[in-house]
Write the structure tokens for this entry.
Amino acid sequence: MKLIKFGEPGKEKTGVIIDNKRYDTSAFGEDYGEQFFETDGLARLSRFVEDNMLAEIPDDVRLGSPLARPSKIVCIGLNYVDHAKETNATPPTEPVIFMKATTAIVGPNDNIIIPKNSTKTDWEVELAIVIGKKASYVSEAEAMDYVAGYVLHNDVSERAFQLEMGGT
């Protein structure tokens, strides 16, 4: 079961994909946000799907971001040796951590906003990990207990603004 949201921007409803078919789960009455994940929402949603006849969603209906806006997006920079080399950077010995604005989240086929006067827009397809409950000082052995799922993340940056302007 894959989580989806569908409909016009700002008016999306919840849904799921099962066996490559899209189904409306808006009658479940809960968005796929932090509260959903913290309260065993995936198990509750699975029971709801099993117990109810769901309306199928046509393939031509827009998909939005599958998750409600999270409280934060934490990113790890230069996390691939090849990427560090292609940017002429030395691979870091410790993670390079930065944040992304949650307002930048869009659906898989939505337009992204390129900054005005952009000259070096760069993109990278990333694997994003959805953390399902509050976590602090989690051991490596317990880490997977906190993972709710995975999504693709298109990390878009304007390199000239990021690397060549300001801060120097």
